[in-house]
Amino acid sequence: MKTPFSGFPPGKVRFTSIPGPFFSQLLPQIDHLGELKVTLYAFWRLGRMEGAFRYLSVHDFLEDEDFIAGLGEEKLEEALEHAVRRGTLLDVVVELEDGPERFYFLNTVRGQAAVEAVINGDWKPSGDARHPLELVVDRPNIYKLYEANIGTLTPMIADTLRAAEEAYPPIWIEEALQIAIENNVRRWRYVEAILKSWKEEGKDERTVGGDTEKDRRKYVEGQFSEFIEH
Questions:
Q1: Which of 25, 94, 106, 185 fits as disulfide partner to 111, beta carbons 3.0 to 4.6 Å?
Q2: Mean pLDDT throughout 83-107?
Q3: CB-side exposure of 98: number of CA atoms within 13 Å?
Q4: Phi, psi for residue 49 in degrees, rounded to 5
Q5: If pLDDT is split at 50, 70 and 90, which confidence band does 82 have?
């Protein structure tokens, strides 16, 4: 019989952030113990990482002996498949020098953008065998984009842009700014409306820089029409 849990230690304890929708939407649906374990482990492990580009490989789960002892190595693949089918985790297979490897991301705005970047080939080998993927970021700074195309970068606007970087991937902000520039709408509220739309409804497959009539109409009609000067 295993030794009972002795309780959480006194003093300062590091907490793990778990989004509210996990408890209100996902937890009532999860009926697979392995899925629940890998999901909670992913929240914990990814939360301890640095940077916006965070992911896990099968090796990351396997190397934690205590976790695998409780789950069972033979059950890991099945548990991860359940979490991916549920939509909690996103997975992508990358061809590395040693062969294909599957990586897992949380299904968040940043996770979706990271998977999109990997699929589009916007990555390079990091040289770190433990974390072999590195995003290739070769885009203009959003503050420079704003000042060059929207307006003066006041302290209030700078704070607004910093808050937006916390809520959305910088790649999204740059793309939304580019759409505003293409449609000659020099208003941050228009950019913000595009970002909120992508977050709530899913980001479309529009190619930034494209000028098709379909793309143009999508961002000047409907919910976006109030920002257009007629």
A1: 106
A2: 94
A3: 7
A4: -85, 160
A5: very high
